[in-house]
Amino acid sequence: MPFDVITFGSAIVDIFLWVEKIKGEKMEAKKRVIASGGGGTNTAVSFRRLGLKSAPVARLGGDFFSQIIIRELKKEGLSLDFLVRKKEETDSSVILIGPEGKRTIFVFRGKTRLEIDNIPWKKLQAKWFYIASLEGNLDLVEKLILFAQKNKIKVAWNPGKRELAEKKRVIKLANSATVFNLNREEMEFLLAKRIREADFWEKAAGIKSEFKIVTDGRDGAYLLRGKKRHFLPTSKVTPIDETGAGDAFGSGFVTGLVKGMKPKVAFDLAMHNAASVVQKIGAKKGLLRIFK
Fold first, then answer.
1. Would you say residue 212 lies in a domain?
2. Of 69, 87, 90, nearest to 78 (Cα)?
3. Which of 84, 102, 124, 190 is most solvent-facing, going by the fewest CB within 10 Å?
4. Would 292 be classed as within a structural domain?
5. What is the β-pairing status of strands 103-108 and 91-97?
6. What does the alpha-carbon distance between residue 59 and residue 74 come to, in Å, rounded to a whole number?
7. What is the structure's pLDDT at 100?
8. What is the rounded average pLDDT for all residues in the chain?
9. What phi and psi, each to the nearest 5 degrees, are found at residue 267?
10. Domain that holds residue 83
11. How many angstroms from the chain centroid is the CA of residue 115?
C-alpha cells in the first residue's frame, strides 16, 4: 500500500542546555532537554500527526544517538523501513540557551548524508515526496524528482543552504516541483533580489513550480501561485524555540493539499502548525496532532 508522503532529509539529536551566562569556563546548566530533529524526520512526524501515512528516508549512525531518534519515531507510529543505518556517528548539536533566550549552537555532522545508493528505489510508492535539506546533494534531488515524474508522484522541495550554492541548478530543479519552499533570506539569495525590490515577486514568479512559499519568520509568510500573491501574518504567540518551524510550515501546507483543501486553507494550516511547534522545546513536540 503506497504512502501519502515519503520524506527525505536529515536526522539529528538536539541537546538543549539552559545556562545563566555563556563564557569560557565550567558552567552549571539549569535545565536540559534532549530531542530529535532534522528535516527528514521532523516532516515525517508532522505528516503522521496530521493524519497522513508517512515514512522518512534518513541516514543514521549505529551509536546511542540513533537509538534516541528511532525510539521517538516508533512512538509516533512511523514506518522505519526506509531508514539507513551505518556504523558511523549520528548528527548531533548542543544548543546553549542564555539570558533573554540568546543561543549558541554547536553542530556535529557525521558521515550521514543521504546518497543515491542509500535509497530503496523499488519500494518508493507514494502520492508525494517531501524533500528537505540533503546537505548539498543535488544529484540525489535531481534523481528523486526524475523518479517522481516517471511515477506520477508530486514533489515538495525545501532545499538547505548547501543546495542553494548552485543557484541555476536549484531553479531548474524547482521548476519541476509542485511546491517550492524557502525562507525570505534564502529566496533573496537565490534570486539576488531583496523582497522589497519592485521586481522581486516578478522574478520569483518565474520559477515554474505551481506553489512558491516564502516564509518570513515572525513577520508572516507569502504564497505565490502564478502571479497571484497571498500574505498571511503569523499567529499571535510567544515563541519559546523556533527549531523546526520551517519543517512544520512546509509539511502543514502539503498536508492540506493532500487532503484536498484549497491552497489558502492549506496555507492557514501551515501557519497554525508552525505557530504550535515554536511554543515547545524541540522540532517535534509542539507539532499539531489530529491523529493518535
1. yes
2. 69
3. 102
4. no
5. antiparallel
6. 16
7. 63
8. 93
9. -65, -35
10. 3-277
11. 18
**All cell numbers assigned to 185:** 533570506
Does the pTM surpass 0.70? The reply is yes
Distance (Å, rounded) from C-alpha 37 to C-alpha 41? 7
Backbone angles phi, psi at 143, to 5 degrees: -65, -40
Number of domains in the chain: 1
| 151 inside domain | yes
Percent helix, percent strand, percent coil in the chain, to nearest 5: 35, 25, 40
Under 8 Å between Cβ of 76 and 69: no
Where are the extended beta strands (E) located within 113-172?
Answer: 126-131, 154-157
Asked if residue 186 has pLDDT above 80, the reply is yes
Cα 53 from Cα 49, distance rounded (Å)? 9
> Residue length, the chain?
292
DSSP code at position 235: P
Whether 18 is in a domain gets the answer: yes
Backbone angles phi, psi at 263, to 5 degrees: -50, -40
10 C-beta neighbours (distance < 10 Å), count: 25
Tell me which of 29 and 167 has the higher pLDDT.
167
At 251 the pLDDT is 98
Give the pLDDT of residue 236: 83
79-121: pLDDT as tens digits: 999 999 988 999 999 988 877 667 788 989 888 999 999 999 9
